Amino acid sequence: MKRFMIPLGIFIVLVIFLGIGLKLDPREVPSPLIGKPAPAFSLALLSDPARQLSPAELRGKVWLFNVWASWCASCRQEHDVLLDLSKKGIVPIYGMDYKDQPADAQAVLNSYGNPYTETVVDRDGRAGINYGVYGVPETYLIDKNGIIRMKHTGPVTPEVLERKILPLVKELQQ
Amino acid sequence: MRLNIKPALRAGMVALVLWLPLAAIAGEAVPVAQDPVLEQRMIALSEDLRCLVCQNESLAGSRADLAQDLRQEIREQMRAGKSDKEVVSYLTQRYGDFVLYKPPLKPLTWLLWFGPFALLIGAAGGFYFYLKRRGTRLASETLSAEEKQRVEALLGSNGNES
Amino acid sequence: MIPELGHFSLILALLLALVQGVLPLVGAARNNAAWMAVARPAARAQFLFVAIAFGALAYSFLSGDFSVVNVTRNSHSRLPEIYRLTATWGSHEGSMLLWTFILGLWTVAVTLFSRHLPEDMLARVVGVMGLVSFGFLLFMLATSNPFLRMPMAMDGSDLNPLLQDPGMVVHPPILYMGYVGFSVAFAFAITALLSGKLDASWARWSRPWTTAAWSFLTIGIMMGSWWAYYELGWGGWWFWDPVENASLMPWLVGTALIHSLAVTEKRGSFKAWTVFLAIGAFSLSLLGTFLVRSGVLSSVHSFATDPTRGLFILIFLAVVIGGSLLLFAMRASQVGLGGRFALISRESFLLVNNILLLTATGSVLLGTLYPLFLDALGLGKISVGPPYFNSVFVPLVTPLIFLAGIGPLARWKQVNVPELANRLKWGFGASVVAALLLPFTQGDWQPLVSLGCLLSLWIAVTVAISVRARLRSSSGWSANFYGMNLAHLGVAVTVIGVTMVSSYQTERNMRMAVGDTVTLQGYTFRFGGVEDIVGPNYKGSRGTLEVSRNGKPVSTMYPEKRIYVASGMPFTESAIDYGLTRDLYTALGESLDGGAWSVRLFHKPFVVWIWIGAVLMALGGFMAITDRRYRASRKQGRAAA
């Protein structure tokens, strides 16, 4: 009798897992870089190609690092959210224009507004690989010591901003 | 003078070789990769790596942009003399174990790797003891069950075909 | 109008399925003949209305009625007619309708070929199938109505280009014939548990149905593998993708079921086990549907998915499978033991076969769901891919195939070991010698190639011994016997294909300008350039490759690259020159500077054997169904009635 209960038991466990699985996104890849120093780069600025920026210069402040591109349709979705955030001045946003033509990127900023303190240009996507970028837009939160504390893949929605990003920003800024 | 001819000839040959693929002159096709041996090694490695942006494709098979970039990255690292292991750890540092189609053996994957063989041994052992017990139970059952079997076998078809 | 007719038919079918599911089951429990008699007409009427709905959907697609959401999403005004038919089941909604349609088909088949069945048994079988059908119809009407209308009509977004292929016209229906066909075995198993009647005649009745479903599933999987080979790019034939695994698991359990049914029928043993496998095969079909449709796993083949649908199927799954397993747990111990057999006997061999098949199924399930388990527990994300499955699957299948050689020659009850060894020793020796030498004909010697050849030859030799003994004996024609041997021979053929193509495939990725040549395994490919082509719903480029061998022309191949108008996505259409001992496979890559193109060329030895073997297995199955025994029992049944 007990023996014949085994399949039912296994099946119940399976159903519980499948039920949890329905809420999960199989395609979202958690970043192994969280808690690790933000990878170094030294990339030209979109606003002034002669100047370069590296994360080391941002030591001492909490900043958002947003990877975007002019060819990325869902980046347009988060654009207004980021603009709003930058107007509030809570946290500086640095952008990385990923695998893009600088002129196209500049055109986007000109016509839709510029939420970024500065944007660096990653023409060949090498810096992106170092950050483990796999789908733009992606947003990283980096603390005063240059450690990555959070990564969000996909457009930043007001909800993600309120629930996930801003509380952590406040905590880190203290 | 003789000394001057050789470089000129060589230059001419280099020009010819460079020019050949551009022209529609029949010849032996050349591999797309500059270094076919390294390319083979890159493909072999990237077959066991997962393309992150795709649904479920290997890095070798994917046409996605990121997959091409990562293949290029692997190629360059191999050219720089990195071992397969170093290349793989470069990728897992950035993308995590998710990129590996062959999950590494660690406590979290013990069930995955040893599960099938534990299952086999468990099932084989379980059935062995079940059969032994079954034998003794059958022996203790009354003869009528045996007879019923025989009747059934006679009513059915002949004995030894499957 | 037509879509509304389809929608209305689905609602009627839902009500009829409820009648079909409830009345006969209650009637059988109360021994009420009138209620039991409802089974046949209700099942047939239900099927009629599902068929009308199916026809209405097909009509909406064929006529290009873009006011239907489903048509808009999966068709296009310039989609060729044949693919409009494919699009009918290319969408989620359509494929669920196909599922239900085929379930109805099987139910009607049961009502037609069931004159020999006791009335209460038929009522229960049809009733159980009615309940399953009710679940699917409810699912469709609640979450996936294929007949929803658009507020305004516009042109469609086209069928996924991967599905725009003649193979996709027949592949899903045949695959579903297999998947859904296991519902008959399932219904018989539930009937046995409900009635407590589980004897040899029960096994004999459910055996042909199981074999038929298994044969369809074999063909379905084979076509899917072949489709992946020519359509998905680089000529891989099995990717261990979740969707493929979803079809492989019921196939493996179905294979175990066929073998254990043989024991139950012949010797009356393994009854509870056989019932469990019958529940298992259909449960895994349902689980497969859930995995494909819910989006819990990411797959190359997963197209549109939706979590609310996933929740519905999961609840349905929990009710159907959970209920069945509970019933099994309550009733299985009363089933009885059956005949006695020694530790070394055909029964034991078949039991080991079952253990290996079930372990293989368990491994595939574990590997497929392990990433989900870890993720659900918050332990991180991993991927489980081909390297895992290959390293686990091969060691399990090797002894299984070896046993397939011995099993059919072993006697029931008890094997006379010295006698069996004596019969097999020459065959075994010859197989070993040939297997060691054969790889040299293809190139370098590799241990795995020898192993593959050994398994294959071993089966071929034992089949020959078996058939020879049969011909010499006085026993006459037995479709069952020859069907089994044909199916086993199919395994041998598939093993050769898998072994050869995995070990000796050669591949080149070349830069080719017009007139350039490449030589691969003695075949010379000459590039004739690329021309622009315009298809009905795509534009593209077509390359020409003239293939010759020793100066003699072999074939001209036209690999294509297409860009579909509606989606704008590029697709590679490979060109294949099929052959019994090798396939030549070419694909057009990128356009390079200077008018050259990158071209990928493959030489794939014996690859078609993989699918020929699968066809032989299925033919063996279909042959076994024609066995006189199944018809004879019908006559007996009629005489008794």
Mean pLDDT over the residues of chain C? 90
Rg of chain C computed from alpha carbons, rounded to a whole number of angstroms: 26 Å
Largest interface, C-beta closer than 8 angstroms, per-chain residues: B-C, 61 and 81 residues
Number of strands of chain C: 10
Mean pLDDT of chain A: 90
Beta percentage of chain A is 15-25%
Alpha-carbon distance between the two ends of chain C: 48 Å
Order of helices and strands of chain A: HEEEHEHEHEEH
**Quick one: overall form of chain A?**
elongated
Provide the spatial order of strands within the biggest beta sheet of chain A: 5-4-3-6-7
**What are the low-pLDDT stretches of chain C, counting only 5+ consecutive residues below 50?**
634-641
Order of helices and strands of chain C: HHHHHHHHHHHHHHHHHEEEEEEEEEEHH
CATH class identity of chain A:
Alpha Beta
Q: Let me know the CATH homologous superfamily of chain A.
A: Glutaredoxin
Q: Biggest β-sheet of chain A: count, sense, barrel?
A: 5 strands, mixed
- Low-pLDDT stretches of chain A: none
Query: Helical content of chain C, roughly?
Result: 55-70%
How large is the count of helical segments of chain A?
A: 5
Q: Which structural class fits the helix and strand makeup of chain A?
A: alpha/beta
